[in-house]
Specification:
Length: about 325
């Protein structure tokens, strides 16, 4: 059935909160010692439930001698074999174990924990720690573990890990987009009358985007600046905790091909911010001077360098 082990590193600390899984209060420790001489020098608690399985706390008052626990209090937990049959067809259970010994002098629980999650199965049903506390330290009333004529308290937290990974997220950054550029010619730019124009939607990195252009600027830049935004389309409704990152260059092309005006955007888009761009992208004076071709067309180009993708097990 297995035995207590102490092969991996352990952590020790103090905490005020009592054990969450099980508490074993003993009214006379010396009588416990005497009684366990007739039960393989150990005391097994009643069954308790944790994580969908049944367990017992095992205390060796004088240590688990056969496994090198001599001179120490040894503590283990044992999984009930019926739990494997009653709960699921699962043949292994993984659990994190924290053992407790109450100290009345400190009014806290001495806590000792194996840092590794432990595997329980039909061949290894008992796990724990051989050397929880030195026996001599424990039985000395001045240290606070034994009090009021022999009372003491042991405990354990058994934190059962789920059988598989239940919550996960994969964040990837696509840097090799098949067609990273989107071009948008706006003809007869000087005579455009609407406040805002929206490009056709285009796909980039698995998302749908549009370019939004204000030929006379937004209200903050009216009459002096060209305003441009790169937006996720309305149908790309992001869930409350969903987001996507884009890195892109937005350019107004020089008809002569030597002096394109460009700015870079690096932005996480989320539900509260589907749009990002510039109120003051390019001054209209400079635009009219340099960036309209002979047919009064303004050519806008967006080149994506990176678009992120997030896959989650579930988004709340």
């Amino acid at each position: 059935m297995g035995s207590c082990s102490e092969a991996s590193p352990i952590m020790k600390n103090w905490r005020e909160h009592p054990p969450s899984s099980y508490s074993l209060k003993i009214q006379n420790f010396s009588q416990l010692e005497n009684s366990t001489a007739f039960s393989h020098h150990k005391y097994q608690s009643c069954l308790f439930s944790s994580g969908g399985y049944n367990w017992r706390l095992i205390v060796y008052p004088k240590g688990n001698i056969k496994d090198n626990g001599n001179g120490f209090i040894s503590m283990c937990v044992k999984i009930d074999s019926k739990s494997f049959m009653e709960s699921t067809p699962q043949t292994e259970v993984f659990a994190e174990l924290r053992f407790f010994v109450y100290n009345k002098k400190e009014n806290k629980y001495f806590t000792i924990q194996d840092v590794e999650v432990k595997r329980f199965n039909a061949l290894k049903m008992v796990r724990g720690l051989l050397q929880v506390l030195p026996y001599d330290t424990f039985i000395n009333p001045e240290n606070g573990y034994i009090f009021e004529g022999g009372e003491c308290e042991f405990g354990v937290d058994v934190i059962v890990a789920p059988p598989g990974l239940t919550n996960w997220e994969i964040l990837s950054f696509n840097e090799k987009l098949p067609r990273p550029k989107f071009s948008w010619p706006l003809k007869n730019f000087s005579t455009l009358k609407e406040d805002v124009y929206t490009s056709n939607r285009f796909s980039m990195g698995g998302k749908q985007w549009v370019v939004e252009l204000y030929p006379k600027g937004t209200s903050e830049a009216a009459g002096k600046w060209l305003s441009i935004y790169v937006n996720l389309v309305d149908s790309e409704t992001l869930k409350p905790d969903e987001k996507t990152f884009k890195q892109a260059h937005v350019r107004v092309l020089d008809p002569l091909g030597s002096k394109h005006f460009a700015s870079q955007t690096n932005r996480w888009h989320k539900e509260s911010c589907m749009s990002w761009g510039w109120d003051e992208f390019l001054s209209l004076a400079e635009l009219r001077k340099t960036y309209l071709d002979k047919e009064d067309t303004l050519n806008v180009e967006v080149e994506f360098n990176v678009v992120s993708s997030i896959k989650c097990s579930s988004i709340i």
